[in-house]
Amino acid sequence: MRYLKSGLAGILVIAAALLAAGEYSLIRGLPGPDSATRSAAGWEPHVSALLLVAFCICAAYLLVRKKTDPTAGIYCPNCRAAQGFALEPSHGEPLVSRGVMHAGGILLALLYYGGKQKRFRCGSCHQLFHSHTRGTRGYFLLTLIFVAMILVHLVADLLEMFQT
């Protein structure tokens, strides 16, 4: 499984490097197969490509990062304890939010679920609280980048619609 994740992360990094090199050549005005059509298209393809580069790099990092203790860096908001937490299951919450599913499909729904705060029980005061872990912060960042990609396309379509 580790080799599969490393291979997929390598493919994502190569894709990000190729996209970044293509955007660099378009911005610098170097000749390319589609430089005339894309440079005349406006800002939307460039921003979309840069967001896709950021998405690929973040996804590759999440694939190859070392697994750490999910409770590292978490403090109880009640007693300020820094250890002894137990991950509690979230009962009654659906795995995939329907509103998020309609807005961005299954990928956005899964990224949103991965970026949600986890529920913990403090070992000292036994209070329940929600907090982000390192993994949930990474998935939250991926969710924001994915939403930004969707918004870029929506804004570009709206601007095009009002210009004509």
Structure commentary:
With 164 residues, the protein is mainly alpha-helical. It is built from five helices and three strands; from the N terminus they run αααβαββα. It has helices at 2-28, 35-39, 44-64, 98-114, 134-163, and strands at 86-87, 118-121, 128-131. A three-stranded antiparallel β-sheet has the order 1-2-3, with no helix packed on it. The longest helix is centred in the last third of the chain and has 30 residues, at 134-163. It is globular and about 65 Å long. The termini are far apart. 10% of the residues are buried.
How would you summarize what this structure contains?
With 164 residues, the chain is mainly α.
Q: Decide which structural class fits the backbone.
A: mainly alpha
Instruction: Indicate the mean pLDDT.
Output: 80
Shape: globular
Strand order of the largest sheet: 1-2-3
Largest sheet: 3 strands, antiparallel
- Give the number of DSSP strands: 3
* Residue fraction in strands: 5-15%
Which descriptors would you attach to this protein?
single chain; 164 residues; mainly alpha; three-stranded antiparallel sheet; 5 helices; 61% helix; globular
SSE blueprint and pairings:
Blueprint: H1 2-28, H2 35-39, H3 44-64, E1 86-87, H4 98-114, E2 118-121, E3 128-131, H5 134-163
